[in-house]
Amino acid sequence: MWPRNDVHMDDGSMTPEDQEPVTDNDMEYNDNGEESSYSNGSSSSYNADKLSSSRPLQHKLDLSASPSRNNDLNPRVEHLIALFKDLSSAEQMDAFTRLLQESNMTNIRQLRAIIEPHFQRDFLSCLPVELGMKILHNLTGYDLLKVAQVSKNWKLISEIDKIWKSLGVEEFKHHPDPTDRVTGAWQGTAIAAGVTIPDHIQPCDLNVHRFLKLQKFGDIFERAADKSRYLRADKIEKNWNANPIMGSAVLRGHEDHVITCMQIHDDVLVTGSDDNTLKVWCIDKGEVMYTLVGHTGGVWTSQISQCGRYIVSGSTDRTVKVWSTVDGSLLHTLQGHTSTVRCMAMAGSILVTGSRDTTLRVWDVESGRHLATLHGHHAAVRCVQFDGTTVVSGGYDFTVKIWNAHTGRCIRTLTGHNNRVYSLLFESERSIVCSGSLDTSIRVWDFTRPEGQECVALLQGHTSLTSGMQLRGNILVSCNADSHVRVWDIHEGTCVHMLSGHRSAITSLQWFGRNMVATSSDDGTVKLWDIERGALIRDLVTLDSGGNGGCIWRLCSTSTMLACAVGSRNNTEETKVILLDFDAVYP
Amino acid sequence: MSAPIVDAPAAEIVYKIISSDGVVSKMSEKAVQQSKTLSNLIENLGYTIENIETRDPIPVTNVNGKTMAKVAEWCEKHKADAIPEDNMNVLKTLTIPEWDQKFLKIEDEALFDLILASNFLDIKGLMYFGCKTVSNMAKGKTTAELREIFGINTDEQDAAEETAQRAAAEVA
After folding, report:
1. Where are the residues of the annotated region Disordered (chain A)?
2. Of B135, B141, B146, which is closest to A135 when you measure between CB atoms?
3. What CATH number is attached to the domain comprising A445?
């Protein structure tokens, strides 16, 4: 269009040229006439007639045309179009082909821009909405975000809640509502002399961020709540993976003692210590709510019930105590064990405790009643798992035992380890048990198999004690005192990745998100790994005293928060819990 | 339907369907069953094996002949298939068979008309394949690529064009 306008302007501005174009047109017309007679010899009389009738018409136009019409129309182009209309379809195609050969690339590109829309359809805007929804239903959340940027119509359709709701569990991960985390210990940060949090936001940016944190439900949430949920989940994932850490806190307590156990339930964090106490903290407010006093020996194991109403603790004083989370009061003292209570597991209100006295005991924490005693191990019970019916225990006698909790009967004894069993996993639905041992190996068992054939995989490669494991599907992640994290395929019995970076024993592991694992270590660091790629994502916490006694004993996490129990065995690092915030608001 | 003649196999009914532009397409009885709308139309208008030969073609006024021919071709190919469940989750796990991929490799305009027709005629299988085909065109693309694939201006381009048209109207 533009080049044509240009030609028009030239034409209109030069009066003397008005006559010359007429002459040129006449000449060109004659040429075309000649061509026509060549290609349509059989109809020459018709062409002759056309020629005679067109000529006077053109002449008339030339004589009567006003100056403005002259500006609008290029006579030569009009002649060409008139001729083109007279051609047959095949002749038109031939003309097109030859015209293209005579055209420059600029014009050809413009021609493509004109032609292409004829072959395209804006499906989403033109189809009924329910069909548009079916089209979008197949896309990922990421694709939907791109779709929303294409046009207003696409944005409107892409934000229909039903489409976002239909995303799979993997994409539409649900998080509790956004948290405050600006009061109490959160008013400061965990950054201090001797503590480095490599990607922490600068202190001068904190106030703005804290203000924004309180705007919990944004514009997108108001018009497309489920898209907003998706975006928040995506932001939280990025907060873990890459974004600056936007908040942290230090919970100080259990001075000069070791934090031996740590649990989280919703907003409640419970830490147990060899100072004989447990502390109950409110995470969001960043403050301690209660100190649970009553044990006369160090606390070595604790649990929070699934309903969140009870805290249970086991101690070197041989007792198990049941506390209320509502007010921190002691509800029951469960006596019967004759040595340190070393491990415990809960399902509903039923508790199973394992002890150095070689027994396990089953209790009802609501009533405080003792239900059963499980005899059979020949040495201390070190770890236990429980699904409400079946108890799985590992001990210093090198065995793993399967029990019926109600009858107290040992169903199966799994032998094969040649040193103490230190860690256990039990996946009830598949009857799978994973056990980690000081013999350096991890064994995977299926106890529904015939006796003596239960071991389905022997995972070797670690060189020390396995301190923690987590299993999802066929992927097992283990952390070990040898300073390595290993990722295994339990179906194949192979090691998929070995993750190196820690400089001494790994103490704890947390797996969250799809492929993120955090580990804590005696070397005073917390590291975040991508277990799909087998790579370090980043360091989350680094103690200057690492290597000189400062260590991270334990990790706990929610989907938006990581708690790190920090301390040392030689008083080089004060005992505390460092909290890192990875939450986000609804945009 | 009447009982088949004992000594001879039952002849399959072939329906004639006349489109909005007067073009007549043919579909077998089995093929027609893929379309709930056509099945209902045939039943409600009383077409039977006895009278099918003497009656006018079945009128479908919302679909043109070219599109109806494609619909008929698809239904004949899939006449033995079960009709998919009316469930959004079906779409997620659906894979388009090779024959259908080729069948649906057509210009956007034709694909658009085909999807509309499958909606009007309630042919779930064809609708799902059509929608899935468009989804696959959109999957994994950047916003700029989406605009190019589907021929969509940015809102700024549309606004600029509107401004230009308004200016031109004022001049005229």
Report:
1. 1-53
2. B135
3. 2.130.10.10
Distance to chain B for A145, nearest Cα, Å: 9
Question: pLDDT tens, position by position, for chain B (172 residues)?
Answer: 444 545 455 566 788 888 888 888 888 888 888 887 888 888 888 887 777 778 788 888 888 898 989 899 999 888 888 888 777 677 778 889 989 988 998 878 799 898 989 988 989 899 889 998 999 989 898 889 898 788 887 777 778 877 887 788 877 6
**Which residues span the domain enclosing A245?**
169-263+464-586
Residue A170 distance to chain B (closest CA, Å): 14
**Contact (Cβ atoms closer than 8 angstroms) between residue A521 and residue A564:** no
**Longest CA pairwise span in chain B (Å):** 82
Closest residue by Cα to residue B88 from A159, A481, A457, A167: A167
Buried-state track B122-134, b at ≥16 Cβ within 10 A, e below 16: bbbbbbbbbbbbb
Please give the single-letter amino acid code of residue A48.
A
CATH of the domain at A148: 1.20.1280.50
Q: With contact defined as beta carbons under 8 Å apart, do A575 and A279 qualify?
A: no
- pLDDT digits over A325-357, tens only? 999 999 999 999 999 998 999 999 999 999 989
Sheet of strand A278-282, all strands in order from the earlier edge strand to the far edge: A259-265, A268-273, A278-282, A287-292
Same domain, A507 and A563: yes
* Tokens 């060109």 sit on residue: A28
| A165 vs B contacts (CB less than 8 Å) | none
